Amino acid sequence: MTLTIGVHSSNPSLYHLYHLSRLGFAQEELAPLGETVVFHPYTNGVRTGELLTRGVIDFGGTGSTPPVTAQAAGHDIVYTAVSAPRPEHGALLVPEDSPVRTVADLKGATVHLAIGSWQTHLIAKALDDAGLSYAEDITAVRGNADSEELLRTGAIAAWVAQGAELAAARRTGGLRTLVRTGDVISDRSVFFTRRDLAESRPDVIEALTRALRRADEWAAAHPRQAAEIAAADLGGAADDWETALASLPWTIEPVSDAFIAEQQEAADIFHRTGFIDRPVTVAHARATADKAV
């Protein structure tokens, strides 16, 4: 059997596993099981549930939001592992001289973010905590290459930045952190697969998790090399990538009851605000054996 691993630049663990495939991290773990590995690069992590259901990929990873929207769309996914919390992975920024001092001050404002990613979870939860609605109280616009400039010129009120972009924006100065990610959500990397694979081949899932841990260990031990890989492939300065990657935990954990509760809270907020059109029971995305524990 050939196992297809989906990979996109927004999931650091899978991204570095892909770029380290020449070192055989994934293949070495799966070869004893009679499996071979190929990678399927794609750009939009929001599509991960759809790609799993269609059989384009067998395993993928994203932030916290895409698996919830995948369940809402009827995709039968199963969580396999999560990263440790990433409290410094991103931040909601405003201009230094902005009159916006609290999340409540964003009512009626335009906010740029990666819609459908973990950033939606961050903004929806922050607004909900402030008694506001993601759907009704702000104008959420998909961020792009111009988001930072639009923020600095006052064309938008706030911008969620992450990774090297966040490091570069902070290095330039003139912006203020309105919301630190870790003060609102845990912001984990999340790994998931189809139910048939999760429940028929738990040995494969365990091997993939070991491969992810090996890639994480490499990235943690070689921060400059990891940064140079990302800068050469994705753009930006290696120094900014090194700053960004140093903020990540590089730790893979089992799917816990606490994580399921975090995801359920997000799902409930998404449904209440209309971001998803039906309620989701996150616990249904656990393997049958995990549910019985």
From TrEMBL:
Record Pfam families: NMT1 (PF09084)
UniProt family annotation: Belongs to the bacterial solute-binding protein SsuA/TauA family.
Protein name in the entry: ABC transporter substrate-binding protein
Record InterPro entries: Solute-binding_3/MltF_N, SsuA/THI5
Ranges where the Solute-binding protein family 3/N-terminal domain occurs: 2-222
